[in-house]
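Gastric inhibitory polypeptide receptor
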Amino acid sequence: VSAKVLEETYRNFFLFGLPAGLFCNRTFDRYACWPDTPAGVMINISCPFYLPWYDKVSQGVVRRRCGYDGHWEREDNGQVWRDMTQCEEEKEVASQELWFKQLMVSFRMLYTVGYSLSLFTLITALIILLSFRKLHCTRNYIHANLFLSFILRAVAVIVKDTMLEHHWGREIMKPTDVSEMLSHQAAVGCRIAQVIMQYCVLANHYWFFGEAIYLYSVLIASVFIDSNKYLLYIYLGWGTPLLFVVPWVVAKMLKENKECWAVNENMNYWWIIRFPVLLASLINFLIFMKILKVIFSKLRASNPTHYTDYKLRLAKATLTLIPLFGIHEVIFVFATDEQTTGVLRYIKVFFTLFISSFQVVLSATQHYMRSQGVHWC
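Tokens:
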């Protein structure tokens, strides 16, 4: 039951007046809001507005009967009788909805496993980088910040999902559940988790950007990063996301201050934090192509007679750089959330969630397979 439904129900309970004589008490049965009904009367109310297929059943009604004893009539199995045949969804549509829900649950399990594995890999890598003094250099400091951004992103996503499930995903079992779910504390806590997650996602992408700039500086521009320039990377990775997250928070508070800020009714506000991700990914892609060109020319120059050998090495370098630079984002750069529907949307969601959550594991595996030892600073 969504917060919008709960708010509507909560408001209706105070709008209904008390009838005279014997009547059945008002109630909310987790499907519709029923007013106080005189004994012996069949009450008809419109199909609930929150039904996904509401447009098809908007003229229908759902019924209950108040018994002559002032109690809602019950079926033989003890359940309160309710006729909602006019509000039911067509079987074909219902099966599609069930399939979609199961698919989303599978997707969530997939990226939860991915982020959990990534967390273990990242924490191990970060401990190694911080433990050995020979690994303390600007290059590895940049790597460490990227690892940290991955860790924060993984933790933020898991915490956000947990809070969404805890506050908005459970069933209403007693009246206090309604007030608790609509409480200011529940909404604020969930929104804070949402904001932190969006900041961590942006920071992660801009540390991708920092890694790309660093590789470009070393391989192509032959510029080595000193401590002063390292601060610029700090500002880029941790500071740039604030330039977009803060305006997004303001827009949400003023224009879409609903539930957990997880639903984007006006996609223009979503683009405040989506645009910088796509911009960084596009620039990363250009740097990626430039670096591949340099690697290709160097491999060909060092091994001009063994075309197959350097082609294979180029393929390995490409596979390593794709997750490192976040190049997978570019694949769907023009397939926006507004444009993708049906199967294409499922493909995009699966591809994005899989790569994003398993990104670290993929990179670490590739790096391990092509490494011959530890490279000190």
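The chain has two domains: 3-89, 92-370.
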